[in-house]
Design brief:
Blueprint lengths: L3 E2 L1 H5 L5 E15 L3 E8 L2 E5 L2 E5 L3 E5 L5 E16 L9 E4 L6 H6 L4 H10 L11 H9 L8 H7 L4 H12 L3 H18 L4 H7 L5 H12 L3 H5 L4
């Protein structure tokens, strides 16, 4: 695939510039006359960097040096933080890095910081070896399609072709919480929605993976601080 360059953007770049961009589909290989830092705020983007496959997500970012050929493939709705940076120390080699907590979507929404400050955090972030990607959107779809089923961590790991230890570590790195806490959240989200639509507590419990109506009612009180009866009173 031919590589295109984008010098017009780089010509006016004399300081770090940060923006959130939406990506979808495939983009041909191209190169910039400035360095570029990428990591995902939502979703995941597959990358090809100088002929080598890689990706970025909420936990793993990529520094692309000036002149490096790169293309991407992204699912609809992928949101990526892009930092365009003039040439400088530490920016002449491509590297993967662990996205600092302060740069992730929840933190940036509460405490926005300048592009220069974002760059400083990236340059201080530890590097990461290439690791197997975890498609959280796909995994969520698989679980939501069968919430009534048993979903031990071993089964989730097997779906992602990872060992239990690898899956757990990667999942926590990506989402900030253990897999079973995430699973409880999916089940309770679905239960609250179904109860608000007038579904019976017993039926909802079984559909969402709880063994009884009382088990679901207890989980709602403990995790969400709400009662099943009050939820059923809500009009959709």
């Amino acid at each position: 695939m031919a590589t295109t360059r984008t010098p017009a953007i780089a010509a006016a770049l004399d300081a770090p510039s940060s923006s959130v961009r939406r990506y979808s589909g495939e983009h041909q290989s191209h190169a910039h006359d400035h360095a570029q830092i990428l990591y995902a705020l939502q979703g995941r983007m597959e990358l090809e960097l100088n002929g080598h496959a890689s990706y970025v997500d909420a936990a793993c970012g990529m520094l692309i040096p000036a002149g490096a050929a790169h293309g991407y493939l992204a699912q609809p709705g992928t949101r990526v933080q892009v930092i365009d940076v003039p040439a400088g120390p530490g920016l002449d080699r491509g590297r993967r890095f662990a996205v600092p907590t302060a740069l992730r979507a929840p933190a940036l929404a509460l405490h926005p910081i300048s592009a220069a400050a974002q760059l400083a955090l990236v340059l201080e972030a530890p590097g990461l070896l290439q690791r197997r990607a975890l498609d959280l959107a796909w995994l969520t779809q698989q679980v939501q399609a069968a919430l009534h089923a048993d979903w031990p961590t071993a089964r989730l790991a097997a779906l992602c072709h990872l060992s239990v230890q690898q899956f757990h570590a990667r999942f926590v790195e990506l989402t900030g919480r253990p897999p079973q806490a995430w699973l409880r959240g999916l089940r309770l989200d679905a239960a609250q929605q179904q109860l608000a639509q007038g579904q019976l507590l017993e039926t909802t419990a079984l559909r969402c993976g709880y063994r009884s109506a009382s088990a679901l009612a207890y989980a709602l009180r403990r995790e969400r601080g709400v009662g099943a009866r009050s939820l059923r009173a809500v009009t959709p």
